[in-house]
Amino acid sequence: MKADKIREIDAKELASKVKEAEEQIFRLRFQMAMGQTDGLKKYRELKKDKARFLTVLREKQLKAGEAK
After folding, report:
1. What is this structure's pTM?
2. CATH says 3-62 is which class?
3. Taking a C-beta distance cutoff of 8 angstroms, is the pair 57, 15 a contact?
């Protein structure tokens, strides 16, 4: 997902997307360890998406702190 689209999402939804990405990463990592899937590309993409979600979420938190 592109950062521009992520910035349009509100903070609560971003937090839920982070949690969802963490769960998917866990499942993929477990499946790869068991040798059930070759999901390395999906795993890497999920990690990057999670990082983007967290970055945008932090930006929103900092902006909210400056507004006070």
Report:
1. 0.84
2. mainly alpha
3. yes
